[in-house]
Amino acid sequence: MNKIKAAIFLAHGFQTSEATITIDLLRRANIEVDIVSLSSELLVRSSHNVNINCEKEIKKINFDDYKILILPGGNLGVANLNKNELLKKQLVAFAHDQNKFVAAICAAPQILGQLNLLNNKKITFYPGCDKGLASAIKTNQPAVVSGNIITGKSIGCAFQFALQIITTLLGQEAADKVKTTLEF
User: Fold this and answer.
1) What does the DSSP 8-state code read for residue 102?
2) What is the rounded average pLDDT for all residues in the chain?
3) pLDDT computed for residue 183 by the predictor
4) Phi, psi (5° rounding) for residue 142?
5) Over the Cα atoms of the chain, what is R_g?
6) CA 178 to CA 165: how far, in whole Å?
7) Any alpha helices (H) in 14-131, and if so which ranges?
8) Which residues make beta-bridge pairs with 34?
9) Do the beta carbons of residue 88 and residue 117 sit within 8 Å?
10) What single-letter DSSP state applies at residue 3?
11) Quick check: 184 pLDDT over 90?
């Protein structure tokens, strides 16, 4: 069986923990995670001035290699992600492919909403970050799966978000195995 691959996209202003916790837990589950920059500049600064050195540039990846595209939150990071037309085109393609997944946490579901990908989808998101979410079914849950869309509420729910991605991709047993190492 081929290893499942995920791409997480970082733009200046991304929320540090939402990205790093997700990367950490998915890698613990043996999901191959590529950290992707939106530009040729691989060093990306988070919303709290933590620099992450991305591994790949968006223009140089083959989207066919991935099972899931992941968007961390952070207001500035989300605004910067939302400016990238290649990313948005691929989010739409993944959302319309029932064999692929899209995941977004905190403020990032707004990108999916503005792309009309959340119509009648059950979602969660950071309170007040609801641009484009009028036609979604809003919940207050830490993490939600609706079809092939996974959403997370906020930094405080980053563990649940990552565990939900693992459950969706690999099953409950794999997520439980990772969860037992976390002691929370």
Assistant:
1) E
2) 97
3) 84
4) -65, -40
5) 15
6) 12
7) 16-28, 75-81, 85-95, 109-114
8) 7
9) no
10) P
11) no
Tokens of 161: 């978000």
Instruction: Give residue 2's pLDDT band: very low, low, confident or very high (50, 70, 90).
Output: low
Helix (H, G, I), strand (E, B) or coil at 70: strand
Q: Position 48: which residue type? A: H
* Residue-level pLDDT at 137: 98
pLDDT higher than 60, residue 1: no
The pair of three-digit structure tokens given for residue 53, joined into one six-digit string = 């050195």
pLDDT per residue as tens digits for the range 120-149: 999 999 999 999 999 999 999 999 999 999
Furthest C-alpha separation in the chain: 42
* Residue 13 Cα distances to 3, 22, 27, 49, 73, angstroms: 30, 17, 23, 8, 9
Amino acid, res. 155: I
**What's the pLDDT score for residue 60?**
97
Token reading at 38: 């939106």
CB 100 within 8 A of CB 113: no
Amino acid at 19: A
91 C-beta neighbours (distance < 10 Å), count: 22
C-alpha span between 88 and 63 (Å, rounded): 12
